[in-house]
Design brief:
about 240 residues; alpha/beta; Rossmann fold; 5-stranded parallel β-sheet; 9 helices; elongated
């Protein structure tokens, strides 16, 4: 649930169910402060930059990689894509374009796309279906492509991809969003797979000017990413997946 939606829901609950006018005013002011904090505070930029920089992109030459694992999460609804016969990409599309970039530098490389769907009730094309269409439309040969079409979360990405790459010798890279790399990398490592990290989809820069940048939209978006990943990491720690 997005932070803004959560704040609005709680505020509506307070307005409708609290009988005390003073309490309504108090909580209204409190949630206004929280809204401004999450929306305007440069703290989110700082924390997100730390998360994105926690694991650096490998300097291993891409020309020497046997393959790359591309984690899912780059597509919008599979239903609309199927109905329109057109792949619809989201803000994490760099996971796909980076694989395409590496393929052009190393035409022998294997591209393992891992992902079925992150939706509760998936309809239409799966993520692997959309990835296949995207890569083939971009000119990548089918012999270079491998699809893992079962996983619905990060742990399952690792679980099912591990068995596939066990059939190939050599060094593999891992392509995912920079903020998602720590959870992904250490989950793979827990399963005995050391991959070369390839970060994409950065949301922060390196100029460290975020202390003077105030943007309520990006602030709320950053907090959504931060909390999503921190909760995911905590859960994986508790369940011994990391």
């Amino acid at each position: 649930l997005h932070i803004l939606s959560l704040i609005i829901l709680i505020q509506l609950f307070i307005i409708f169910f609290l009988q005390s006018k003073k309490l309504v005013i108090f909580f209204s002011k409190l949630f206004l402060i929280l809204f401004l904090f999450f929306g305007y505070s440069p703290l989110s930029n700082f924390l997100l930059s730390k998360m994105e920089d926690y694991i650096q992109t490998s300097k291993y030459p891409v020309q020497q990689l046997t393959g790359v694992i591309v984690l899912g999460g780059s597509f919008n609804s599979g239903l609309e894509s199927k109905e329109r016969n057109e792949v619809s990409l989201n803000s994490s599309a760099e996971r796909l374009t980076k694989a395409l970039e590496i393929y052009k530098k190393n035409p022998r490389i294997l591209i393992l796309f891992s992902g079925f769907s992150g939706e509760l009730k998936p309809q239409g094309w799966s993520e692997s279906d959309m990835a296949k269409k995207f890569f083939l439309d971009q000119g990548i040969k089918i012999d270079n492509l491998i699809f893992e079409n079962q996983s619905r979360n990060t742990f399952e990405n690792i679980k099912y991809s591990k068995d596939i790459i066990a059939n190939y010798k050599g060094t593999w890279g891992l392509i995912t969003s920079a903020n998602h790399m720590p959870r992904s990398f250490f989950t793979f490592k827990k399963q005995g797979l050391i991959l070369e990290p390839i970060n994409v989809d950065y949301k922060t820069g390196t100029s460290r000017m975020f202390w003077i940048n105030f943007d309520i939209s990006s602030g709320l978006s950053n907090w959504n990413i931060i909390l999503h990943e921190l909760i995911g990491i905590a859960y994986y720690k508790i369940t011994n997946k990391i």
